[in-house]
Design brief:
The chain has 88 residues and is mostly beta strands. It has a single domain, classed as F0F1 ATP synthase delta/epsilon subunit, N-terminal (ATP Synthase, domain 1, Sandwich). Helix content is 5%, strand content 62%. The chain is built from 1 helix and 9 strands. Strands 2-1-9-8-5 form a 5-stranded mixed beta sheet, with no helix packed on it. A hairpin with a 2-residue loop joins strand 8 and strand 9. The N and C termini lie far apart (39 Å). The N terminus is likely disordered.
């Protein structure tokens, strides 16, 4: 069975804290900030690793915008997979 067009154009995202999962699923964009400033992760983003600055993280999928505030964290992007580990 083939994937729908929208799922093949999305990111696979997991955003979690030690005892909480903020989001797990497909998304169009992940927005956050590091010490350089705000940034967005879209499909086919270059491999990326960064320490996150305190503030808001935004994850947008086809039907929702998920927002949560973090105190700290890291983000890893590779092959359209985004991993966020926050509030550690």
């Amino acid at each position: 069975m083939s994937e729908s067009k929208s799922s093949t154009e999305d990111l696979s995202v997991i955003a979690r804290a030690p005892f909480h999962i903020y989001y797990e699923g497909r998304a169009h964009v992940v927005s956050a900030a590091n010490n350089v400033g705000p940034f967005d992760i879209l499909r086919d983003h270059a491999d990326f690793f960064s320490i996150l600055s305190p503030g808001e993280v935004l994850i947008e999928n086809e039907s929702d915008s998920i927002r949560f505030t973090i105190a700290n964290g890291i983000i890893s992007v590779r092959d359209n997979e985004v991993l966020l580990f926050v509030n550690m």
